[in-house]
Amino acid sequence: MADDSAGNDSLLTDPDGGLPRLAHIMARLRAPVGGCPWDLEQDFASIAPYTIEEAYEVADAIERQDWEGLKGELGDLLFQSVYHAQMAQEAGYFTLDDVLRGIADKMIARHPHVFGDEQIDSAEAQTEAWEARKMRERAAKAQTGVLDDVPVGHAGLTRAIKLQNRAARVGFDWPEVGQVVDKIAEEARELTEAAPEDQFEEYGDLLFVMANLARHLDIDPEAALRAANAKFTRRFRSIEAALAAQGRSPRDSDLAEMDLLWDAAKAAEKQR
């Protein structure tokens, strides 16, 4: 799907141009002559934060069941892939065609029960087969360590879960949830007793064990935290609305009053 940015501008106005149209738009944005100055200044590192942000916005739209919004967010996320592929093509690393070919080949190879003769009867069996196949792929890449290919670019809680899952497959895991809870209490105590210069490390340890508890409870910690953020935002806005009805703002209130308004918002939510 290599793009000829010097021609084929008919794609720009073709509503059914699909992925080639988007690739052509991206090539035009990065064209040395006539391109967008901002886009021309970007590189992989500067665009990566936007890629992560778009992935979170996809997740947010799904959680809110905003299906029209999801359509737009998926487009934004797809554009990030096209953006990186365009920069890679300019550098001579690979092309968008290579990306598409690679993911298609990978999906076919990892689903032999769909595209081949292998028999898999449950989602659990598929997960086990998937992981076994990934282990063989890592071995072929000379990645022999259990944690070798867990990406460092994941959000912290997500990477913690992936590291813990990997370690658990070789038996390095607490067998009971209660043991994880005990470890949380231990880490919380160490944090409160730590010297200021050690608090950063101890806080990280506590978060890591909290992620482990989420894994044992089969909870996505990132999703749980997003839900808690949304709840906090919703209830704080209720506080603001209640004070605004009196011609005041949080700056004109105090913690005791706002706590009462928080409890009122919480109670109102439970009655719905």
From TrEMBL:
InterPro entries: MazG-like_dom, NTP-PPase_MazG-like_C, NTP-PPase_MazG-like_N, NTP_PyrPHydrolase_MazG, PRib-ATP_PPHydrolase-like. GO terms for molecular function: nucleoside triphosphate diphosphatase activity. The keyword Hydrolase applies. Signal peptide: none annotated. Its EC number is 3.6.1.9. Residues 42-115 form the NTP pyrophosphohydrolase MazG-like domain. It holds the Pfam family MazG. This is Nucleoside triphosphate pyrophosphohydrolase. Keywords: Hydrolase.
